[in-house]
Design a protein that fits this description.
The chain has 136 residues and is an alpha+beta fold. The protein contains six helices and four strands; from the N terminus they run E-E-E-E-H-H-H-H-H-H. This is LacI family transcriptional regulator.
């Protein structure tokens, strides 16, 4: 939370302006987040999360490799891509996201909370229930 700032008017009187907001780092950039329950006076611009989109695209490509028999397991994909098998398994979970959530990510309307392995473990398999489990 930012501290209140004091300004001096032309007559020397003090004016204090307090705006409840939080500054968070997201994707290497600073993001201003309004306080919960506060009316937002400016519309929020959609922010496309290219890292998340790339992760979803990779997951679908790897799923296709498994389905077509190009790779037999996450371990095979990991060897081919020269990455860890646990990373492959975590990303493969993104193929279970509902089309509505994937569309939100592609449009830049995803919640500010980043997707983590912990979040994916708690997402229900049923697509209709996923939207209510999504943070934000």
């Amino acid at each position: 939370m930012l501290s209140p700032k004091s300004l001096r008017g032309q007559d020397g009187s003090s004016i204090t302006i307090q705006i409840p907001l939080t500054v968070r780092k997201r994707g290497g950039r600073k993001l201003i987040v309004a306080a919960v329950g506060q009316e937002q006076w400016a519309s929020v611009r959609p922010r496309v999360d290219n890292t998340l989109i790339k992760a979803i695209a990779r997951a679908y490509r790897w799923q296709q490799m498994l389905e077509q028999g190009a790779c037999a397991s996450a371990e095979d994909i990991a060897k081919t891509e020269k990455i860890s098998a646990s990373y492959v398994r975590r990303l493969l979970q993104l193929t279970l996201l509902s089309p509505a959530l994937v569309e939100m990510v592609l449009d830049g309307r995803q919640p500010a909370t980043m997707i983590t392995a912990n979040l994916l473990q708690h997402l229900p398999a049923e697509w209709n229930s996923q939207h209510y489990s999504w943070p934000g």
